[in-house]
Write a structure and sequence with these properties.
Number of strands: 7
Radius of gyration: 32 Å
Shape: extended
Structural class: alpha/beta
Mean pLDDT: 87
Strand content: 5-15%
Strand order of the largest sheet: 5-4-3-6-7
Oligomer: single chain
């Protein structure tokens, strides 16, 4: 047997894959031929059953092949456009990009003494005051770690009745050696730039600072304790919104007993993101996150949300058309004719949404969106519904499952037609989950339950700052300083943005 795992030549692997695909097709045809012979001896009913089983098998094979060899993008192929016969215009480029946020430092360049002679009269060349020929160059100044010796001056009265010492800097940890800025640097490196603490230790050592990962964790943990009220207030404000997105992804908790799969639940509004990492994906976990919420939640078809909605009269579910589209897109190779119809219709819904060009949250946009949805989207949705009930699909096939998924969520899918605040899909929260997915690929997860709490807090505050257009490091510094000077006080990114 060929040991494929030992092959490291991409060209050879490609040839092997092509041969395996050809052999798979040959075997499938042979199975079909044998099934026909078997069915001929057992009657028409047996033949229909065997044909159905064969179709299911082929569908599974196609799905596996697409998973291994297909493109990861859900974009449908765009028809090729013939190139114009005329010569293409020369691309000029955008020129030097302006960098208004970078400081500008002047670097003077002197003419060497030996070259300061006039070529005409051999006289001495003198500097021409104020005259330079300037050229910009973007460079890098390496980060530096320094020891700041804070010298708190003492003051006394001539009568020796009082001695007063000047106030020192705000301290993250009483008597601690590391500054607030240092802790924020570590937190931003991990939860924004996805650098594991061990990797930060090695980078810092190259830059002259010898420290261990436990010390870095102590700083981020202390910073998180000061910022705890900000996280709780962020959750309170999100749950006060009339509409929000919800989704979840897995998170790894690593401890002495091995690795466990926990779950990161995410709630999002246009200007806020909240994460909560818990040990389950159950309806109880959803209830703990959304307890007492009264409003509209846009989700996929996950059953925990539906169980929560049934037990919460004030909570209304809307459902995501992107997830419906994804169900059909995944089976388009097996059912090209049927899926082309429904994918084109869903595409028409998105085309209507693109007609709204004004600010999305403005009253003008809401009114325009409501009118366009009523006039253009509602007929398209009705055509999709009629197609769903009319399409012929064998039981348990991929097409039947996709159709049943759509029709089972129909009440939530059409809710956007009567409420212009509801978008077509849940893509906003899926984008919000992406940083956590990148983070777990880099630092694998958390080592303790406290680690999950710290991760949820920093991801929430950092991604909310990004959503509000606030620089995350600057926000964390202001919020931490306020929390240390006034314990229990709250500063959220939206407060700075406004």
């Amino acid at each position: 047997m060929l040991a494929i795992e030992r092959i490291d030549d991409p060209a050879l692997l490609k040839q092997v894959a092509m041969l395996l695909a050809q052999e798979n097709e040959r075997l499938h045809q042979r199975i079909a031929e044998l099934l026909k012979r078997l069915a001929a001896t057992q009657g028409a009913a047996a033949q229909a059953e065997l044909t159905l089983e064969l179709a299911k098998l082929q569908e599974r094979v196609n799905a596996l092949q697409r998973k291994v060899f297909g493109e990861s993008s859900e974009k449908r192929p765009v028809p090729a456009v013939e190139e114009p016969s005329a010569e293409p215009a020369v691309r000029r480029g955008h020129g030097p990009r302006a960098q208004p946020q970078l400081p500008v430092e002047a670097v003077p360049h002197d003419l060497p003494e030996a070259d300061r002679k006039c070529p005409s009269c051999d006289g001495q060349l003198d500097e021409w005051p104020g005259q330079t020929e300037d050229a910009e160059e973007i460079s890098v100044v390496e980060r530096r770690f320094v020891v700041l010796k804070h010298q708190r001056k003492k003051y006394r009265c001539k009568c020796n009745g009082a001695v007063v010492t000047a106030v020192g800097p705000d301290k993250l940890i009483a008597g601690g050696r590391y500054s607030i800025e240092f802790a924020i640097e570590v937190a931003v490196n991990k939860y924004l730039d996805h650098l594991p603490l061990e990797r930060q230790v090695r980078i810092m050592e190259r830059e002259g600072l010898v420290v261990d990962s436990h010390t870095l964790w102590d700083q981020t943990n202390a910073l998180a304790r000061h910022l705890g009220p900000n996280y709780r207030e962020l959750k309170r404000r999100i749950l006060a919104a009339p509409f929000l997105h919800a989704d979840e992804t897995w998170w790894r908790l690593m401890n002495e007993r091995g690795s466990k799969k926990w779950w990161s639940w995410c709630l999002a509004t246009p200007d806020a993101v909240l994460y909560s990492i818990v040990k389950s994906r159950s309806a109880e976990a959803a209830r703990a996150l959304l307890e007492g919420y009264r409003g509209i939640v846009l989700t996929d078809g996950f059953g925990s949300y539906q169980a929560l909605a049934r037990a919460s009269p004030g909570l209304t579910l809307a459902h995501c058309w992107a997830h419906v589209r994804r169900e059909y897109f995944e089976i388009k190779d097996n059912f090209p004719e049927e899926t082309t119809v429904v994918l084109d219709l869903i595409g028409e819904l998105y085309a209507v949404e693109k007609l709204v060009q004004v600010e999305e949250s403005s009253a003008e946009a809401q009114a325009l969106r409501a009118r366009l949805r009523n006039e253009k989207s509602r007929p398209v949705v009705e055509r999709i519904r009629q197609w769903g009930y009319a399409v012929q699909a064998t039981p348990e096939s991929g097409l039947a499952k996709a159709r049943d998924y759509m029709l089972g969520l129909w009440q939530g899918l059409v809710r956007f037609l009567d409420d212009p605040r509801i978008p077509l899909d849940n893509n906003q929260v899926e984008r919000a989950l992406r940083p956590m997915v990148v983070g777990r690929k880099n630092h694998y997860g958390s080592r303790s339950q406290r680690g999950t709490e710290v991760a949820a807090l920093f991801y929430s505050l950092i991604e909310t700052a990004k959503a509000c257009g606030v620089e995350p490091k600057a926000y964390l510094l202001q919020a931490a300083q306020r929390a240390i000077r006034q314990p229990g006080s709250v500063l959220l990114p939206s407060d700075l943005a406004s």
